[in-house]
Amino acid sequence: MSLHIKSLSFSYDKKIIFSDVNLKLDSGKIYCLKGANGEGKTSFLNLIAGLEKPRKGEISFGKVKFVSDSDFVPSNRRKVGYVFQELNLFPHLTNAQNIHFAKPGLPKEEVEELVTELNLTEHLQTYPHLISGGQQQRIAIARSLAAKPQILLMDEPFSNQDKENIDKISKLIVDAALEKNLLVIVASHQQVSFPLEKINMIKIKNKGISLELK
């Protein structure tokens, strides 16, 4: 399936962030979103997730129209996973409960596979405030993948990670995109470890958004 963005414009506090954006993004691919601070990277992700509404334009995925002049599908019905820059873990739940919250009834072996790949096994029964920022970030990634989304949005997912864990997260995302036909959009200032042939670039500049395909 494809995410179609047509004539999309977005303003914040009467300031135009981007205007007349037209893109087609395909499932099974990874897109790296680049742009200077304040250019609208997080706003672009929020529009796809349903956390913001555009000034005008359409966003659709497959046959489902997420937003248009007459349609708006709320975020909890879009099958979009979102790793927020702020993480938004529940402090009163253990790390394991945070992951299971995304999809109650998720088979234990699937959770074990995720946490093993992300070096989190020994931290499952403790709470978010008792682990490092990098470990919290990986719990948030595991939670988003556990929900089995069709689209995965990631806002600065590598900011608290060392190279070893950046490599592990990158491999997990590449595998998810290819094996589960997942559409992945990653906003990051850091050098990422995705194989170059797997990456498509989305650039936000001068109120426009362009796509560079591999």
Summarize the structure.
The protein is an alpha/beta fold and 214 residues long.
Number of helices: 5
Low-confidence parts, pLDDT < 50 over ≥5 residues? none
The chain-level mean pLDDT equals 89
Helix content: 25-40%
Structural class: alpha/beta
Quote the beta fraction.
25-35%
Provide an overview of this structure:
The chain is of the alpha/beta class and 214 residues long. The protein has a domain at 88-148. It contains 5 helices and 10 strands; from the N terminus they run βββαβββαααβαβββ. The protein has helices at 41-49, 95-102, 108-117, 133-146, 163-179; strands at residues 2-12, 15-26, 30-34, 56-61, 64-67, 80-83, 151-155, 183-187, 199-205, 208-212. The strands form 2 sheets. Strands 6-7-8-3-9-10 form a 6-stranded mixed sheet, sandwiched between helices. A 4-stranded antiparallel sheet has the order 2-1-4-5, covered by helices on one side. Strand 9 and strand 10 form a beta hairpin. Helix 2 (95-102) packs parallel to helix 4 (133-146) and helix 3 (108-117) packs antiparallel against helix 4. The model has no long low-confidence stretch (mean pLDDT 89).
Spell out the blueprint of helices and strands.
Layout lengths: L1 E11 L2 E12 L3 E5 L6 H9 L6 E6 L2 E4 L12 E4 L11 H8 L5 H10 L15 H14 L4 E5 L7 H17 L3 E5 L11 E7 L2 E5 L2
Helix pairs in contact: 2-4, 3-4
Supply the key terms.
single chain; about 210 residues; alpha/beta; 6-stranded mixed beta sheet; 4-stranded antiparallel beta sheet; 10 strands
